[in-house]
């Protein structure tokens, strides 16, 4: 696979990761909003159980990363057993709320008047005093959820994509070699009656300008630095094509042929084939 294709794959993978990240953010917002509605429902049912059908459950507050607080407009009384049953029944609808701690606080001094722990394994539940009625007072209920530590399918895909992207990027960057720098040469090189501008890729002869492509410029520059000397075919392939990640077939012969046509304005300049070795730029005096 060519490096340009690998680069395209990396770009597509990066876009996919970004899309998954946005999707995960959306899912997190949805789950959080759904959980807050369940918590408000707990407050609503507690008030109904105490005989209050008119006062409000105040907005649920997120007081920590995994902890929420339910507040009420007016004082109420409650049965601990009813609170335990209500929270278990409603929070069973939250797939990420299998383990949590509930504390009921007195509004006046923030003391804990009742609390319990619900675990994934029922034998690890800590629930006590469910038969003792709690008197009329102002209460706040704090519910702290245990971080799941479970990678959901979306999270798993996101993390997996990041890993693949990082690995592919490392391989890609490691394998890409910068174009091999050719030896320094004068900006203008004289080739017989021609002047070769190595920077702009132009041949100047008798007031005529001949434009060269980038690759033609690189090939001719190698020849111009070693006139009348054999240049191995493998060297040209290595320095011009392979270092830039292009697979060489008949490309070299094609560019040599094009250069010959552009040099034919001076009959004293020829690129000749050295059989079994490579090429030579012959410049006759």
From TrEMBL:
Annotated signal sequence range: none
DNA-binding region: 186-283
Pfam families: Trans_reg_C
PROSITE patterns hit by this protein: OMPR_PHOB
CDD domains reported in the protein's UniProt record: trans_reg_C (cd00383)
Domain OmpR/PhoB-type per the UniProt entry, residue ranges: 186-283
Keywords: DNA-binding, Membrane, Transmembrane, Transmembrane helix
Kinase among keywords: no
Residues annotated as transmembrane: 156-173
Domain of life: Bacteria
Protein name: Winged helix-turn-helix domain-containing protein
